[in-house]
Amino acid sequence: MAELQAKLQALSEDYQKLQQELQTAVEARQKIEAQKQENLGVQKEFDRLKDGESIYKVAGPILLKQDKIEAESTVKGRLDFIGHELDRTEGQIKEIQERLEKKKGEIIQAQAGLQAAAAPSKATA
């Protein structure tokens, strides 16, 4: 009986660790999504620019003039990278959720085993 309780305790601790891992992954996804929205906003600003208007980039305490084509390709590259990071993070979240469900099933089985082990001892008492 003590062995079953120890197993249940270990499963519960694993489940809590997985929940924390999921929370961390969700927070990472939110940060990446915010970066994506920011870069999409920059891309829209580029679309609104008229020919001949200047683009400046912050480099430390100064502003540097930047070529429009270079700036657009930089933002496009960032958006591509962010898209890949979002896909990777979504995959992590899905995998953690699957592990959580599996661990949940193991906990339910352990609880059922503990209850079954406890039932005969109550009947004999």
How would you characterize this protein structure?
The protein is built from two helices and two strands. Strand 1 and strand 2 form a beta hairpin. The longest helix has 57 residues. The chain is rod-shaped. The two termini are 15 Å apart.
At a glance:
With 125 residues, the chain is mainly alpha-helical. The chain is 83% helix and 8% strand.
How many beta-strand elements?
Answer: 2
Strand content: 5-15%
Percentage of residues assigned to helices: over 70%
Number of H- or I-type helical stretches: 2
The helix-and-strand class reads mainly alpha
Radius of gyration: 26 Å
For the sheet with most strands, the description reads: 2 strands, antiparallel
Order of helices and strands: HEEH
Mean pLDDT: 92
Indicate the overall shape: rod-shaped
Distance, first to last CA:
15 Å
- Sequence stretches where pLDDT stays below 50 over 5 or more residues: none
- Write out the strand line-up for the largest beta sheet, numbering strands in chain order: 1-2
Q: What are the salient characteristics of this protein?
A:
2 strands; 8% strand; 83% helix; 125 residues; mainly alpha
